[in-house]
Design goal:
The protein is of the alpha/beta class. The protein has 15 helices and 24 strands. A four-stranded mixed β-sheet has the order 22-23-1-24. Strands 2-15-17-16 form a four-stranded mixed β-sheet. The chain has a four-stranded mixed β-sheet with strand order 4-5-3-14, covered by helices on one side. Bound molecules: ligand EPZ.
Amino acid sequence: MDKLIIQGGRRLEGTIEISGAKNAALPLMASTILAPGKHVLENVANLKDILTMCELLEKLGARVDRSRLESDGILEIDSADIQSRRAPYELVKTMRASILALGPLYARFGCAEVSFPGGCAIGARPVDLHLKGLEMLGAKISVEHGYIVAEKQDAHANEITFDTVTVTGTENVMMAAALTPGKTVLLNAAQEPEVVDLAEYMIEMGAKIKGAGTERIELAGVESLKPGVHRIMPDRIEAGTYLVAAAITGGELLLKNCNAGHLESVIAKLHEAGVGIEKSEAGLRVWRKGKLRGVDIRTTPYPGFPTDMQAQMMALLSLAESGVSMITETIFENRFQHALELQRMGANIKMEGNRALVTGVKKLSGAKVMATDLRASASLVLAGLASQNTTEVSRVYHLDRGYEKMEEKLNAVGAKIQRAKEA
Ligand code: EPZ
């Protein structure tokens, strides 16, 4: 396993290119199952989770050309010869997002077997709403030996209300409904930009979808879909992470290829905390304006403050020079594990249930810390950048799942990060 060794206390200055969104690429890759033939996806980040999804598609029988992924961010996926409908435990257990194969396999082949994704460090992560949505479209759902088995019985359209806003649940049911005859309406649907990106590609494939990006999505089922070409949206969480990197080091960065429109709630909070952010033709400019102030954060579904930015903001607010911050995590039940590691670096954080009270300290001190999940590892890197002396973040495989070349991008703007093997 790898670790990152971070020499803290260095001001970041320069330009960072933002990569394609992981959480848009994963459903988009799964959607290629819907339409037999050769799909081309552009601006795909070279990430562990993307490679895992490539493996899953190949396991199903698709041909994936990843030869231009590293160099040009291009994936070619030919789904014509998919013959398996089974997403195996060995793959699903390494990446929960494999559940995104369920909807398209069911839609195209009338049957699907996907290993039940387990929980993960941040929560139980149930998929009951995915299954309820498929059942309401006429699927017969059973669970056999740890596998979800979905079989098309009397496929019919329906009006489906999600009890809780679920991003991949909305995406899975959207993909199943696209090939289900009649007009299906999804209510309390996720409004995340990644859902919109998926819908846009599905429309290009011939799906009839209206309302993506709102809580009400309408789909008119079609007979079949055809493959196309799609450029993946920029990663708003990667961009948000680097906004915090500039703020926490007192530096100034220009983020290119990012969409500020996807970050409005994050930008508003950073402004409130005393961080300067300016949208320009060249990109998104961010700098530490003056004193860092404590702010309250409450994570909610898009367009509210994203849960995927909560850990990064906690690192920043640990160094607020005035005011305290109340952070409330409403999406996942166990998403404060980074707080325990930040405390070891000197942060003053008091937790109770899904709330954390952060009182700024003058400085954080470097320490050996351990990453527990993707965004927690990002928050520890950010804290390491701002700390005096050296921080070692272990288990950075978590980081490699969702951040493309993080240490390279940060070192290019003045950080001093070295990757090493853990003893
Ligand atoms: C997506 O996960 C993202 N992953 C997550 O990003 C992100 O944190 C999350 O949405 C919330 O924005 C991908 O898009 C691949 P949910 P997802 O279903 O879809 C409950 C990262 O760091 N729920 O929106 O799995 C669930 O327990 C990752 O990149 C049910 O109860 O999240 C949670 O409390 C982490 N039943 C809430 O809904 C269900 O059937 C939101 O989960 C589904 C979800």
